[in-house]
Amino acid sequence: MRYIIQFGDTLYAIAARFGLPLRDLLAANPQITQPDLIFPGQVIEIPDTGQPAQTFRYVIRPGDTMYRIAQRFRISITALLAANPQIENPSQIVPGEIVYIPRRTMRQYVVQPGDTLYRIARSFDISLQRLIEANPGVDPTRLQIGQVLTIPESFPREIVIPREDYGYDEMMADLEALVQQYPFLAMTTIGQSVLGRSIPAVRLGVGPKEVHYNASFHANEYITTSVLMKFIEEYAQALAENRSIGRFHIPTLYNQTSLWIVPMVNPDGVELVLEGITPANPYFEEVLAINGGSRSFSGWKANIRGVDLNDQFPANWEEEAARRAPDGPAPRDYPGPAPLSEPESQAMAQFTRDHDFRLIIAFHTQGEVIYWGYRGLEPPEAEQIVRRFAEVSGYLPIRDVESDAGYRDWFIQEYRRPGFTVELGKGVNPLPFEQFWNIWGKTIGILLTGLVV
Ligand SMILES: [Zn+2]
Q1: Phi, psi at residue 174, to the nearest 5°?
Q2: How far is the CA of 205 from the centre of ligand 1 (A)?
Q3: Ligand 1 centroid to 306 CA: how many Å?
Q4: Distance CA 117, CA 119 (A)
Q5: From ligand 1's centre to the CA of 351, what distance in Å?
Q6: Is the Cα dihedral 153, 223, 215, 427 positive or negative?
Q7: How far is the CA of 222 from the centre of ligand 1 (A)?
Q8: What's the number of CA atoms in the CB half-sphere (13 Å) around residue 225?
Q9: For 271-316, how does the pLDDT look when each residue is reduced to its tens digit (9 = 90+)?
Q10: Residue ranges of the chain that CATH labels 3.10.350.10
Q11: What is the pLDDT of residues 44-74, one digit of tens each?
Q12: Rounded Cα gap, residues 204 and 187, in angstroms
């Protein structure tokens, strides 16, 4: 089929929207020699994928059954089977195989006087292109009053559901689902935790300007992970629909910026706080000893070896160690036997050195404040930027923290670029998830503004 490039389109976003690998789209359009040079009005060919209309692709995972898949996507088993006539024996599906998931039922709309397709699309929060695709028989220039239009659902499905038990496995499952639904998301691993969990990083955007956000340096601050996961989904959704979030046009940001998100720096610590510990854990006895025998880990910030990962960086580490720190493993504040002694902090340092971040934000809880200075080493623009963050969040900027050896301290010291610690929410860690949407509302402006300053 033919497709006319719209303002703000990128080939990545178009490929994603049609469920195609980018290379297939390029192969079908040999006239495009520079994929980053396309212009509105240009006509391109969308190759036929054999994929039924109004479906998206899902790769079968171990343990899946057709029934479970139907349940997971909240569709009927009949609808799922109908969309997948290529599957000969639905009781014998193989991991790695593709199934097509029908998008859920469509709504109908009767055209009113004064309507235009554009206005209708806007009112249902869908793109004009999707509305046209859903109504192949309709001539967009001759809309008739009383005509019935099919309105596609505003979006396939919500993947990230912030909830009380949102830990490492939930995050990994969601990342996998997000990458499947939005193939333009790129995921890599920056290293491994003490217990061998891989620490993922997600890249949003292909632009030359690199920005970095991270969450859950501290174990009992895991609500920060949900915030960044939700942001990944919101961003991807807006990009796939070629639209803005507020005044931020996401397809433009996608081309200008590469945002690297590490949603959980300390997976072992987060799992300890959420799940507790069993004798199967190689650190079982050590952890209980560090925790004074208590099985409640709600005050635990450290990694599984009792090292505070945000006290590990070579930015006046010796002073930090001498000043306030426990001299051995502890639930919080122990900076370790040496700077960067832990695999998680090593991974973060290496990841940072491998990039050219123009700005970083570390998300913690709690206090509704934003730290922006470090020993006067921060660039002057940090103050202007934090003012904008304060405007969009209502959070209070604070210049100095009386501590050293944090990730942000090190970033500012090494690169003399803007680095911020944003303390989300208010209360006692771990913050309850009933605060999530309130925190989200105050944070979304920071998350977006960080990409344009
Ligand atoms: Zn913290």
Answers
A1: -65, -40
A2: 27
A3: 15
A4: 5
A5: 20
A6: positive
A7: 10
A8: 32
A9: 999 999 999 999 999 999 999 999 999 999 999 999 999 999 999 9
A10: 1-53
A11: 988 876 777 667 777 787 788 888 888 767 6
A12: 9
Residue 7, burial from CB neighbour count under 10 angstroms (0-12, 13-18, 19+):
exposed
Cα of 267 from ligand 1 centre, angstroms: 14
Q: Under CATH, which architecture does the 168-268+341-449 domain have? A: 3-Layer(aba) Sandwich (3.40)
User: In the chain, which residues fall in CATH 3.40.630.10?
Assistant: 168-268+341-449
Residues marked active site are found at: 423
Average pLDDT, integer, range 369-393: 97
Distance 219 CA to ligand 1 centre (A): 8
**pTM, two decimal places:** 0.69
Question: Tokens 């560090």 appear where?
Answer: 290
Cα(97) to centroid of ligand 1, in Å?
Answer: 42
Please give the pLDDT value at position 98: 84
Q: Which residue has the tokens 């949900």?
A: 226
CATH number, span 1-53: 3.10.350.10
Q: Which position has the token pair 């931020």?
A: 248
pLDDT band at 215 (very low <50, low <70, confident <90, very high): very high
Surrounding residues of ion ligand 1, Cβ less than 5 A: 218, 221, 364
Residues belonging to the chain: 453
Q: How much distance in Å is there from the Cα of 365 to the middle of ligand 1?
A: 6
